[in-house]
Each structure stands twice: as C-alpha cells, then as structure tokens.
Amino acid sequence: MKIALGPVQYYWSRITMMQFYESVTDTPVDIVYLGETVCSRRHELRLPDWLEIAHMLADAGKDVVLSTQVLLESGQDLTTMRKIAANDGFLVEANDMGAVHCLDGKPFVAGPYLNVYSSPTLELLAGQGAQRWVMPLEMGREGLAQLQAERPQNMQTEVFAYGRMPLAFSARCFTARHRNIPKDNCQYVCMDHPDGLLLETREGQPFLVLNGIQTQSALVYNLINETQAMRDLGVDVLRISPQSQHTGDIVQLFRQVLDQQLDSNAAFEQMLPLMPADPCNGYWYGRPGLEQMVA
Question: Which positions ≥6 away from 64 have C-beta within 8 Å?
C-alpha cells in the first residue's frame, strides 16, 4: 500500500507551509495532495504557489494531486476551481460534483466529500473519469468490504487513516464567531490555531475542533492497527492528514508498519505522544466515531 499526505486543513503562514513541504520531500510519502480545501479567504498561498510546490515535490519523486475546495461560495472560488481542473500537469482531487463536471472526463480522484456509499455511485464516477476514490470517513470496514467486492475494474481505493476528521462545512466561520468578529473581516484568526480551536463540553470533555468554516473531530482518527485488515480488503492508499508537528514521524511509523519492520501495536504506542489529542476509531467498527475499539 502507498501512503498519501492529504491537503493541509489548517491556515499556516506562507513560510511554515513552504518549510513543511520542503521537509515532505525527505519522507516516505508516495502521494501528496495540495491546495486550499477549506476557506478561500486563506490567501498565504495562491494557485501559482501551489503549482510551484507541486513541481518541487514531483521533482523529488512524489505523485502530486491538486485538491479542489469543498464548499464554493463565490465567483472567484469557481474561477480557481476551473483553473485547477484545467491544469495539464497534475491529477485533480474533485471535492464536489461541480469539479467533476469541470474535469469533463479527465482522470481524477473522487475525494471523500463526494460521499460514495454505493457501487452505482462508484460506477457513475468511474464513467466520468475517476481513477481512485477516497472512502467517506463515516464508512466502516463492512461497508468498505461490500464496495471493494463491487468496485469497477482499475479503480483504486484510498482510506483516511490518520488525523482529525473533517465532519462538516458551513457558510459561517466558527473561529471568527468565537472572537465575535464577522466572517468578512475575520482578521485571519485561524492562523492562531495551527491544529484548530478545541471546543469542550461543560464537563471539560473534548467535543469538536473549530477550523474556520470546517468542524472537525476533537479526537484523532487512527487506523494504524487496521493496516493488515485494509490490506486484506484490497485498499491501495492510506491517507495521513497533516498536523502542525510530528507529521514526518507519523508517516515514518506507518511506513514501518506497512513494510513489516514494526508491529502495529508498538507503532500505536509510539504514536500516542506525537498526537495532538487522544485516538479514536469507532467509525471503522460501525460504532460512534469517538470510541476507541480494540480488535
């Protein structure tokens, strides 16, 4: 199985982002997804900058995919999406059906936000050019097994295997609302929270993470103990979502497990101090997502 690094979901400074992707060239990542998928107001990097990073990573031997924004809210958002779809150098991850239509039959990756839960949907996307699909985060191993048995020929499967789970998007910016400022004058406060803004219950329990217009899980989805099960199901790619620290170490532990150089339980224990929050894997078992199940 290959390891993919998903798009950065947070708002980091330009220099932080550049340094991060320079460090990625030395990691055992096979595929790197690039682009702003959350909020178009995040302007530290624009499309020419993403393309510059894409060429740098391609020169380092990485397969690069350009990701489209999930929730489009303006004409400028549409223009950027069309430019990404029109590029001739890199594969595109389509995160809404508008991007699928703009690709007009070109090969693409069907992102997790297309919500593929049935084989007819997968067949439809394959007919429109999808070469790989990313399993929705709420889907468990039983649903995956069914789709794997029925997936179109030559269709690859990718599973979100590590990171805070993106759960929902809204037209409202929750991080700005937390500061009592309007979205149109948000002052880019997302940059103050490089791993999102934790929201707790009245009892002090982690509940959700606010990331601009995106809501994430407070806990970190971690399927490193399920790598053999995913291999048995024919999964082709594991996706790791970047975090502000220790991403390279997380990638290395996944690689060692996949190469059978390290036991998955030992890797899981080594990973715990590297994570920004406690682990969960409930969705994989068909349970509430915040649960941590043991096989």
Answer: 31, 32, 34, 54, 57, 58, 90, 91
